[in-house]
Amino acid sequence: MNITAKKSVNLQVNIGSLQLKNPIMPASGAFGEDMDSVIDFNEIAAIVPKSITKYPRKGNKTPRVCEVPAGMINSIGIQSKGIEYYLQHTLPYYRQYEVPLISSISADSFDEFAEMAETIGRVDGVAALELNISCPNLKGDGHAFGMDPESTYKLIHQVKQVTDKPVIAKLTPNVTSIQDIALAAEQGGADGLNVANTILAMSIDVHSRKPKIGNVMGGLSGPAVKPIIVRMIYQVRQVTRLPIIGCGGVMTGEDAIEMMLAGASAVQVGTASFVQPTAMLDILRQMVDYMVQYGIADINELIGGVIID
Ligand SMILES: Cc1cc2nc3c(=O)[nH]c(=O)nc-3n(C[C@H](O)[C@H](O)[C@H](O)COP(=O)(O)O)c2cc1C
Questions:
Q1: CA 95 to centroid of ligand 1, rounded, Å
Q2: Which CATH code of 3.20.20.70, 2.40.400.10, 3.30.70.330, 3.40.640.10 fits the domain covering 13-302?
Q3: Which end of the chain is more exposed for a tag (fewer CB within 10 A), N or C?
Q4: In sequence order, what DSSP letters do the residues of 172-192 get, joined into one string?
Q5: What is the dihedral sign for C-alpha 29, 144, 91, 285?
Q6: Tell me, what's the pLDDT at 77?
Q7: Any atom of ligand 1 within 6 Å of the Cβ of 253
C-alpha cells in the first residue's frame, strides 16, 4: 500500500543531505522490531532505533512509566544491550528495509560519544546519527550535555571530527533558552536539530504519597508537551536555518502539520505509537488529506509557513 499513490502530492522532504520519502518517522525509544507486524517500515521516512549506549544497561528502578493527563512520564534510563549487540544484531536486522536508518546514540562523556559515533558512522546502512544530548553527563548530577551551550558545542564539534555522516542533535527542552543551545549545536557543526526530548516532570500518588516513577522524576511526553515544543521549534527556526525535526506530542496529521508550520521539516512520533501502533501511517494519511483539502501540492510549502500578522 502506498499512501500517496492515489493522490498527487509531494511528501518528500530533506534533512540536510538526507532525503526522506515523507516527514514521518519514529521517535527513539518508541519503536522496535516487533512493530513490523503492524506497519510496513518501508512506508515511514526513516527507522530510528532506541538510543544505544556503549555498554549494556539495565535501566532505572521500576515503575518506569506512568500515565498523566494528556501524556505519560517515563524514566527508562536508556535500557540497552550495548554497542556490540547493536552492531551485530540491530543494524543488520534493519538492513532489509529500504528507508534510511538514523542511529540514536547516548553516552556518558564527550570521548564516549565520539568513539561511538565513529564506530557506528562507519557501518553501511547507517544514514545519519542522532545524538541524544539530553542524557546526563559524567558529573552524575542529572545535568545533561544539551543544557549548556558550551558542552553542546564541544560535543557536536568533537563528533563531527570523526564521522562524515550527518549529525542531528536531539535537544533537551529543559533549558531556559533553546535558541542558545540550537546556535551552539549549529556552530559545532550539526547538520540538523531534533526539537526535542521529554520535559522533566514528576507525579505523586496521593494515597501512597510515593512518586509514581521509581526514579522519582522522569520525562513527560504526549499531547501535554506539544504547545511547548511547537513554541520551541518556532524559536529555533528564528535563529538557525538548520533543518528541524519536531518531536513531542504529535498524535494526528494536524499536529504534524502544526509542527511543520512552526518550522519543522520532519516530525517524529513517540507516545502516539504506544496508544496506537499504526499511528505513524494514520498520521501520514491525515497529512495527505489536509494537503488535498487545502490544495497543497508540495509539503515543503508548509515548512515555517505560520502566518504572523
Ligand atoms: C518509553 C520512552 C522511551 C524513550 N526512550 C528514548 C531514547 O532512548 N532516546 C531518546 O532520544 N528519546 C527517548 N524517548 C523520548 C522520545 O524519543 C521523544 O523525544 C518524546 O517521547 C517526545 O515525543 P512524543 O510526545 O511523541 O512521545 C523516549 C520516550 C518514551 C515515552
A1: 23
A2: 3.20.20.70
A3: C
A4: -S-SS-HHHHHHHHHHHT-SE
A5: positive
A6: 84
A7: no
CB 115 within 8 A of CB 161: no
Residue 113 contacts residue 159 (beta carbons within 8 Å): yes
The three cell numbers of residue 192 are: 540538523
Strand partners, 168: 130, 192
Q: What is the dihedral of CA 22, 28, 34, 40, to 10 degrees?
A: 0
Is the Cβ atom of 248 under 6 angstroms away from ligand 1?
yes
- Reported as a single tens digit per residue, the pLDDT across 59-98 is 889 999 999 999 999 998 888 999 999 999 999 999 999 9
Using the mean position of ligand 1's atoms as its centre, give its distance from the Cα of residue 5 in Å.
Answer: 31
Region 235-254 average pLDDT = 98
Instruction: Output the 3-class SS for 77-107.
Output: CCCECHHHHHHHHHHHHHCCCCCCEEEEECC
Q: Measure the CA–CA gap between 93 and 58, rounded to whole angstroms.
A: 22
> Model confidence over 124-158: pLDDT tens digits?
999 999 999 987 655 556 679 999 999 999 999 99
The whole-chain average pLDDT of the chain stands at: 95
What pLDDT, on a 0 to 100 scale, did the predictor assign at position 78? 80
Tell which one of 197, 215, 274, 280 to mutate to probe ligand 1, the residue whose CB is within 8 A of the most ligand atoms: 197
- Using CA atoms, how far apart are residues 300 and 67, in angstroms rounded to an integer? 35
Pairing of strands 18-20, 167-171: unpaired
Cα 270 to ligand 1 centre (Å): 6
pLDDT at 5: 57
Ligand 1 atom nearest to CA at 247: 23
